[in-house]
Amino acid sequence: MKKLLLAAALLSSSAMANTDICVDMHEQAGVVMRAHQSGVPATKVWEHVEGIIQMELMFEQAYSKPRYSTKAHQEKVISEFADKWFISCLKAFGEDV
């Protein structure tokens, strides 16, 4: 969970290139969805994302999705979720995707 806080600090840095910010978003989306798929209670994750708007939205989206029992399906959902955040981030910066 400390990674979530570190990423939030990094996301606020204006010195980072847009793609670097989006790569960090991808990583954090994966962390949040992995926590959900692993059964980490929402209350535990919320303690680490509360007050960080992007992370709160990420949390809300991840925890609104179903949990899957097979590792392969979990990994697929984690990857797709992280990729969605990465692409949305790039588009928000006006990058051609």
What are its keywords?
single chain, 97 residues, mainly alpha, 73% helix, 0% strand, globular
Task: Please sum up the structure shown.
The chain is an all-alpha fold and 97 residues long. The protein has helices at residues 2-11, 18-37, 42-49, 53-63, 71-92.
Largest sheet: none
Order of SSEs, N→C? HHHHH
Global morphology: globular
Secondary structure category: mainly alpha
Number of strands: 0
Outline the low-pLDDT stretches.
none
Mean of the pLDDT scores? 88
What does this structure look like?
By secondary structure, this protein is mostly helical. Helices cover 73% and strands 0% of the residues. The chain is built from five helices and no strands. The chain has helices at residues 2-11, 18-37, 42-49, 53-63, 71-92. The model has no long low-confidence stretch (mean pLDDT 88).
List the helices and strands and how they pair.
Blueprint: H1 2-11, H2 18-37, H3 42-49, H4 53-63, H5 71-92
Helix pairs in contact: 1-2, 2-4, 2-5, 3-4
